[in-house]
Amino acid sequence: MIVYLLTFILFVMGLYCLVAKKNVVKKVIGIVIMDYAVNLLLILVGYRRGGVAPILLKGMDRAKFTTQSVDPLPQALVLTSIVIGLGVLALMVALCIRLYEKYKTFDMSEIRRLRG
Amino acid sequence: MQGMTIIVKTVVRIVTSFIVLYGIYIVLYGHLTPGGGFPGGVIVAAAYILIMLAYGKEVALRSFGDKSASLLDNLGAFGFLAIALLGLTGGYFFLNFINHGQPFRLVSAGTLPLSNIAIGVKVSACLYAVFIALAIFGRAVYRAMEEPGKEER
Amino acid sequence: MHSLLPLFIAIPLGAAFLGLIIAKLWRGVGGLFAFLSTLSLMVFSFLLLGSSPSIYKMGGWIPPVGINLVSDGLSTLMLVVINTVAFLAIVFSIKYMELYTAKPKYYALFMLMMAGMNGVALTGDMFNLFVFLEIASIASYALVAFGCEHEELEASFKYLILGGVASTLVLLGIAILYSTTGTLNMADIAQSLSTHGANKASLFALALLVMGFGVKGALVPFHAWLPDAHPSAPAPISAMLSGVLIKVLGIYALTRVIFHVFGFTPTLGAILMGLGGLSMVVGALLAIGQDDLKRLLAYSTISQVGYIILGLGLGTPLGIIGGLFHLLNHATFKSLLFMSSGAIEYSTGTRRLSQMGGLNKRLPVTTAGSTVGFLSVSGIPPFNGFFSKLIIIVACVAAHQYIYAGIAAFVGLFTLLYFLRVQRNLLFGDLPESLQGIKEVPFLMCFSLVVLAVLCLGLSFLYPLMSKTLLASARDALLNTSAYIKLVLGG
Q1: Distance between CA atoms of C334 and C226, rounded to whole angstroms?
Q2: How many contiguous H segments (helices) and E segments (strands) does chain B have?
Q3: What residue spans define the domains of chain A?
Q4: Is C391:C321 a contact under the CB 8 Å cutoff?
Q5: Which residue of A has its CA nearest to B140?
Q6: What is the spatial distance between Cα C253 and Cα C129, in angstroms, rounded to a whole number?
Q7: Which of C91, C119, C108, C178 is CA-nearest to residue C143?
C-alpha cells in the first residue's frame, strides 16, 4: 500500500511543480514527473512479490512460469506510454525554445499576449 | 563548434561501432529477449548523438544529415504500416502471415522481427532528427541570450 | 463491410508518411494525397452507413485478448462527421495554405490527426483509446503552433500543458481501471463492472476519466485552453478542431465511457447536465465582448458543446437524439463559420471586427456562407440549429428539467444577440477605406463554404429521415449496453 501512496505523492509533486513554477521549462519538468508517476503506478499494478520477468526462455517449465511471472501487459503499456511521453516532451521543448526566441523570456507570467 | 578534445574523439571513435552493434543486437533479438525496436533504436540514436557531440555538428551532419534522417524516419514508419497492411493478404490487418517457425530461434515469430527492424530504423532516425532540430533551434536561443535588451514586446 | 474498418486508420497514416517521403521530390504531393485519402475515407464512411454493427479483430486475435475495432451506430455517425468535415477542410486548405510555408508537413500532421480521430471513434479498447487520443492531440498541438508567431506559440503551449495533464489523468484512470478489473477491453470492463458492481477505485477512475475527457472536450471548468488555441490555428484547422476534434476526443470518448463502460446512472446524468448547463451559460457570456472574430466563434463553441452534453446527459431517447443531432449540426455550422472567417481573413488580412464592415458588397459568396452559419448557430428556422435546439429543449421539458429548458432557451436568445452584433459589424454598414480593393476568395474555398451552407439547410429537411436511420441507430447503440457487450465478446 505504501508504494502506491508514494507514487501518488510523486504525482502531486509534479502537479505542484506544474502549477506553482513560473518558468516554462520547470512546468515541462513537472508534466514529465506526473507522467512518470503514472508509469510507475502502472508497473506496480502488474507487480507480483517474488515474481520473475515475463520472458519465456529455453528450458523453462511453462506451468511454473505462468504461476510465477509478473503481469506483462502493464509493461507493454508503460513502454507505449513512455514513447508517447517522449514525443510530447520533444514537442514541449521545441515550443519552449521557440517561445524564448520570440518573447526573450522563460517566465510564463510575461508570456501573455492572449487575453479576454 | 569544432568538437571536444582529442581524448574524447578517440574514445568515441572506438566506442561508437560497439554501441551501434549493441543497438542492432537489441533490435534483432527483440522477439526473444528484453528489448525490441524502440530500445534498440534509442541506443543507435545515442551513438549518432555521441558522434555529433564529440566531433561537432558539421562533421556529423556531413555524414548523416537531417534530410536523410527524416527520410529514414518516414521510411521506417511506412515500412511498419506496410507490414501491417500485408497482413490483409491473410484476411486481417496486422495478421502475422509468415510461418512462425521454431521458438527461440533468431528467424522465428513471423513478422515480429521485421516490425522490430522497421521500428528500430524509425526510432533511431527520428531521435537523431529531433536532436538536430533542437540543436539548430538552440543556436537561435544562444543568439537571443547574447543580445538582451532588445525587447520585442 | 467490416473489412473497411482498419482502412480508416491505415489510409491517413500511409498518406502522411508516404506523402512526406515523396515530398522530397515533388512538393505538391501532400495536398494530392490528402485530397485523395480524405475523399476515399468520406466515401467509405458513407458506405458504412446502414450496415449492421460489426467488429474487426486486429491480427485475427479474439477479444478480450486481442485489440478490436468496433463499429456501431455511434461510431458510424462520428466517422461520417469526421471524414466529411475533413474532406471539406482539405479542399479549403489547398488554396488557403498558400499563406503558410511547409505545406507537406501541414498535410502530414492533418493526416495524423485524422488517423487519431478515426481510431478514437472505432477502437474498442481502453488503452488504444488513449494511444489514438494522444496521436490526435499531439498532431493538433503542432497544428495550432503552425504559424510560429507569438500568439500561436503561446496558445499552443497552454494547450499542450493542459492537454498533457488531461492525457496523464486519462492514463491514470485507465491504470486504476485495469487494476480493479484486470482487462482493457471496454466490453469486458463493462461486464466485470456490472457483475461485481462499481467499487470506490472504479469510481475514482471514472472521475479521472471525466476530468481528462472534459479537458479535451473543453467543458466549462476545464475550458481555459480553447479560446486561445482554436483561433490561433490556420482556419481549416480551426474548423477541424472546433467542428470535430473536441467532439471526438471529448464528447464521444466521454459518452462511450459513461454509457458503455460504466453504465449510465441518473447521478452521472446530473453531472453531465450540470457541466453542459455551465458550459452553455459561461461560453455565451464570454462571447459577447469579443472583438476578434475567431475568438468569438471559439467561445460560441464552448456554449454549443454545452447543448450537446445537456442533451446526452438527459439520458432519455429524445434527449440523446437531440444531443447527437446538435453534434452533427454543430460540426457543419461551426466549420462553416470558421472557414468563412478564414476566407474573410484571406481577403482582408484582419480578424478584428472593429476594422471591418460592409463586406457584403465585395465578398458575396463568403457573406452568404457566413450568414447561413450565423442564422444556423443562433437557431433561426428553417436552419438546422433551430431544430436540434428545439428537440433538446422539448426533451428537457419532457424529462421535467424545467430549469435546464429555461437556460437552453435563454442561451439561444443570447447567441442570437451576439451574432446579430457580429453580422452588423462585419457584413453590413460601410466598407472601410483600407478594404476597398478586396476580392472574392478562390473557387476551391467557395466550394467548401457552399457545400457546408447547403448542408446547414439540408440537414434540417433531412431530419425526419435521419431520425429514423442514422440518429436512431446511434441512440440505440448508446442505450443498449448489453448489445455492445454481446457484439464484442460474443462475436
Answers
A1: 14
A2: 5, 0
A3: 2-49+64-103
A4: yes
A5: A101
A6: 8
A7: C108
Contacts of A93 in chain B (CB under 8 A): 134
For residue A116, what pLDDT is reported? 53
Domain count, chain C: 1
A90 to B151: CB separation less than 8 angstroms, yes or no: no
Distance from CA of B145 to the nearest CA of A (A): 8
Q: What is the pLDDT of residue A99?
A: 86
Residue B149 is predicted with a pLDDT of: 45
Closest residue by Cα to residue B82 from B110, B113, B115: B115
C-beta atoms of A80 and C290 within 8 A: no
Distance in angstroms (rounded) separating the CA atoms of residues C60 and C56: 8
Minimal C-alpha gap between C78 and chain A (Å): 25
Q: By C-alpha distance, which of C122, C149, C124 is closest to C136? A: C122
Note the CATH number of domain A2-49+64-103.
1.10.287.3510
The full length of chain A comes to 116
Tell me the residue type at B63: S
pLDDT digits (tens, 9 = 90+) for C417-456: 888 888 887 777 777 777 777 777 788 888 888 999 998 8
What cell numbers appear for C287 in the block? 462571447
From C132, which residue of chain A is nearest by alpha-carbon distance?
A84
d(CA C91, CA C39): 10
Mean predicted lDDT score pLDDT of chain B: 80
Say yes or no for a CB contact (<8 Å) between A116 and C142: no
C289-307 burial by CB neighbour count: b if 16+ within 10 A, else e? ebebbbbbbbbbbbbbbbb
- Our CA dihedral for C57, C61, C62, C64, rounded to 10 degrees, sits at -90
ipTM exceeds 0.90: yes
The shortest CB-CB distance from B137 to any of A57, A58, A94 is to A94
- Listed by number, the residues of chain A in 37-76 with a beta carbon closer than 8 Å to a beta carbon of chain C are 38, 41-42, 45, 73-74
Count of CB atoms situated within 10 Å of the CB of C462: 15
Residue of B nearest to C17 (CA): B74
Percent of chain C predicted with pLDDT > 90: 30
Task: Supply the pLDDT for residue B142.
Answer: 66
Instruction: For residue A28, list chain B residues with Cβ-Cβ distance below 8 A.
Output: none
Confidence bin at B20 (pLDDT 50/70/90): very high
What pLDDT digit, counting tens, does each position of B116-130 carry?
889 999 899 988 888
Find residues 53-72 of chain B whose CB sits inside 8 Å of chain C.
67, 70-71
Cβ proximity of B123 and B24 under 8 Å:
no
For the stretch C324-334, pLDDT in tens is 999 999 999 99
> Could you tell me the pLDDT band of residue B150, with boundaries at 50, 70 and 90?
very low
Give C-chain residues touching A96 at CB under 8 angstroms.
Answer: 157
**Any idea how long chain B is?**
153
CB contact under 8 A, C165 and A91: no
Interface list for B 85-104 with C (CB within 8 A): 85, 87-88, 90-96
CB contact under 8 A, B104 and A58: yes
What value does the mean pLDDT take over residues B12-18?
Answer: 91
Instruction: Please give the Cα distance from C274 to C467 (Å, whole number).
Output: 26
In chain B, how many domains are there? 1
The residue segments making up the domain with residue C299 are: 2-490
* Residue of chain A whose alpha carbon sits nearest to that of C179: A45
Tell the residue number behind the cell numbers 507514487, with chain if given: A7
Report yes or no on B118 lying in a domain: yes
Cell of C371: 450568414
SS3 C432: coil
- Whats the size of chain C, residue-wise? 491
Which parts of chain C register pLDDT below 50?
Answer: none
